[in-house]
Amino acid sequence: MPKKDPSQEALDALRAMEQDEPTEAGIDHLRKLLEHRSNHVVGRAARLGGAWKAGRLIPDLLRGFEYFLKDPVKRDPGCVAKRAIIEALVALEHREPEVYLSGVRHVQPEPVFGGSEDTAAVLRGVCGEGLLECRYTDKYLVLAELVMDVDPRTRRVAVESLGRTDTPEAELLLRMVVLADRLGDGGAPGRLRRPDEEDADIIASALQGLMAIAPDRSLEFVASFLRSDKDTVAEGAALAIGEARLPASFSILRRAYEAPGGPDLLLFLLPMALTRDEQAIEFLLRVVEDEATPYAAAAVEALAIYRGDPVCRARIAEVVANRDGRQVTQAFRAAFEE
User: Do 112 and 121 meet the contact criterion of CB atoms below 8 Å apart?
Assistant: First the structure.
């Protein structure tokens, strides 16, 4: 009989435990599995501990993180265990900064075909997220480094975390990220660099974060990116303005839509609908009624956010029925009837 793989047995046990409610015996078993030498077993045990809100596992998680920081490529290839441990500590609302500080500095180059890859990029970002919840005086100085990290994966997680942090410091850093994009390529010494073309989605996320933190103060600034030559940035700005649902949101989006040139006009339709402004509904209905098929179909898809409103749905159905166009009718059926 072939010998059983202890790591696989542990993973199978964890898979079964994930279907159960937390118990004292189950948490005790997780404590033992957090001492396992398989990074995959520890990672899965950490995630379950976080999901179970098992706060008494925090000392075990901290010991595990310290263990996997030593000889990390051998012990924890891919940062599987370390990332899961930090995510569990964040979920368990661990507020001591030391573990996060050790993680934000960690770089783990591992061999891949044709060179090496830093597998700690996301880990650094998640550690920054944890640090934001700590009473640590210099945490925003650390986040300033993370949002300028050489790896876009780190930058993305850091920006998303700042967007959920309602503080003036977070707002300032997000503005810095967005403005740095205007500087172009060039880079800075060491591990820092300016964002470039690959960061369009990160810039979009930063714009959305600004509108979440300080919508009134950020509106004019974010609106200036509606004419970006990067569609992803323009769309991010439009969605941020639409989701904010400010009194001026629709009029700003309409002006951008009607201005000549610029990004793909289709990307403004859903943000208009998101304003929930009666003027936006009327405008989109006119697009359905009068404009070219691709725009009419996209407007129908944008208006699908009103599928639960019988009055609005009936108005949309009437306009679609009066328009001669199979693609628009199909868009309505897909959005409202399926």
Answer: no
